[in-house]
Structures are given as structure tokens and as C-alpha cells.
Amino acid sequence: MKTVILDAFAENPGDLSWDWLYEYGEADIYDRTPADKILERAKGCDIVFTNKTPLTRETLEQLPDVKYIGLLSTGFNVVDWEYCRDRGIPVCNIPTYSTMAVAQCVFAHILEHTNAVALHSASVHRGEWASNPDFSYQVAPLTELEGKTIGIIGFGKIGKAVAKIALAYGMKVLASTNHPAPFDGVEFTDRDTLIAKSDFVTLHCPLTPETTGMVNASFLAKMKKTAMLINTSRGPVVNENDLADALKNGVIAAAGLDVMTREPPENDNPLTRLDNCSITPHIAWAGFETRTRLMEICKNNLRAYAEGKPVNLVY
Fold first, then answer.
1. Is 203 exposed, middle or buried (0-12, 13-18, 19+ CB in 10 A)?
2. pLDDT per residue rounded down to tens, the chain (315 residues)
3. What's the predicted TM-score (pTM) here?
4. Which residues have a catalytic role annotated?
5. Hey, what domains does the chain have and what are their CATH numbers?
6. How many Å apart are CA 54 and CA 38, to the nearest integer?
């Protein structure tokens, strides 16, 4: 069999090994593949791996040899999976590999807001502590998490992991989900109640027609003026212009984002110019341990397919 990886770099910038691929035959590995090179690189391949390089119906119709598509991600919107289903091509993703890493990223953003570690460290490095008459000073307000309320929209594996961490901090936890099930310490409520009562609102819902643009001006107006929004789910869940307006006009206090509607974002994206919006470049999933786990699941997916028993099918 012949294999191609169209965009290997994000999963493996050089600290992991693709050697296992060669057990299945010839393999070409590309760090990135521009749109005008997809057909050229995937032509004649039995196995195609992609992370964010799109495999549309138009593209796949010109790749008659493809027998298996492996995703280097959980999300599968970059592949026309309905066409693949109809053509009998297994499309396998990588589920639940980054649960704790994403939950950790949520609190990285929250703690940056409440403790302002980077801001205070920069102040010290500028010499402001050395020249200060007091042994302690603040360049931004500091906030305890204990007793604060966090609202979790979407209560799958990641939402549950966030809840466990929040409870360890002594926070009150509200959750809004279409499928509530008893969870110690968590109060389930409707979305509007959650938005109004929460000091932190964190998004863990899938991207669907219903959730696209869910966080808009109306949503944000229901939040506390002192509240923070965190998004580590999918960028298009948030209307970025509405969020920028809310942050600039004091509708909410802060936001923490690991995902954007367009990645990379445009240079003129208004959120990138706001001090009360912390943004990380879609790295919640990218820790070494997390990527190692992703690689292992990817390997097992391909092995299962080769044995005639594909797993983690997206359809």
C-alpha cells in the first residue's frame, strides 16, 4: 500500500516518529500541503492522512485509489465523509485523546486572568519590584476562584474534566447540556440561567448549525460585566466581532480563546488587539504527551483497518 500524510507538522514537529508507517509500504510525509498540491501528492495513494488539509468531494472524485482516510484530529469537517461513506472509504478520527490537556488549557486562561502572572512577571523584569518601596505590589487586580461560579456549556468528556478541576478549586459548577446525567457537585440548568449566574463561561459544545455563532451580542449581554468567556471548542461558535465589541465596551470583563473562526486569523482581527482577550494558537491539544497519545491511536486505527476491522469511524 502507498500512504501520504498531507500535513504532518502540527502533529509531529520532529519529536515523534513516523517509522511505523513503513510497515504498510511506501509513505510520503509532507509538513504542509497547499490546495494546489493535494491531488498531485495524494494521487495513486491507498491511504491518506490529513489534519486540516481539506478532502472535498471534488478532490476525492479524482482520487480513485484511496481506500482509507485517517484523520490526525477529532474533528472531521475537513473530509466529505458522506461521499466517503457512499463510496465505502473508511474515515477514522482520533477521539478523546486530549481531554485533560484541553481542560488544563481552560484553567491556564482562567488563571492568567485571575492571577496575571505574565503581567506581574513582566513588571518585575522591568525593575519595578526592585524600585518599589513595598515588599508586595499589584499591577492588576487578583481574584480567588473559590466560591466563584463556572458555567460549562456542553458536558461531554472535556466538560466533565473541567468540572472536576473547578470543584477542586472550590468553585460552584453549573452545566448546560442536552443530555444531563447526575454528576456530584454539578447543577444542571438552562443556558440563559447559566450565562447570567456564571463568573466564567466555558464552551465545550460541538460545532453544529445550531451552535455556529451561538455566542453573539445577545448572549454576551446576558453575562455579568465582571465575567470571562473561554472558548477551547470550535472558533465559529463565537461571533468574533460581537465578542470584540463586548470586550471593548465593558459588556464582559475578559475572554480566553484557543480557537478562532479562521486559523491562522487575519492580521486585522479585532480580538488580537485587545489586552483583555488572551489568545493561544490552537495549542490545547499540542502537548508532547497528548500528541504521543494521538499518534498511538492513529497507529491503532490503521492497524485495525488493515485487519479488516476499522475503528473510530466518523459515520
1. buried
2. 999 999 999 999 999 999 999 999 999 999 999 999 999 999 999 999 999 999 999 999 999 999 999 999 999 999 999 999 999 999 999 999 999 999 999 999 999 999 999 999 999 999 999 999 999 999 999 999 999 999 999 999 999 999 999 999 999 999 999 999 999 999 999 999 999 999 999 999 999 999 999 999 999 999 999 999 999 999 999 999 999 999 999 999 999 999 999 999 999 999 999 999 999 999 999 999 999 999 999 999 999 999 999 999 999
3. 0.94
4. 234, 263, 282
5. 2-97+288-306 (3.40.50.720), 99-279 (3.40.50.720)
6. 9
Cell numbers given for 117:
502572572
The C-alpha cell at 202 is 466555558
Residue 45 C-alpha cell reads as 495513494
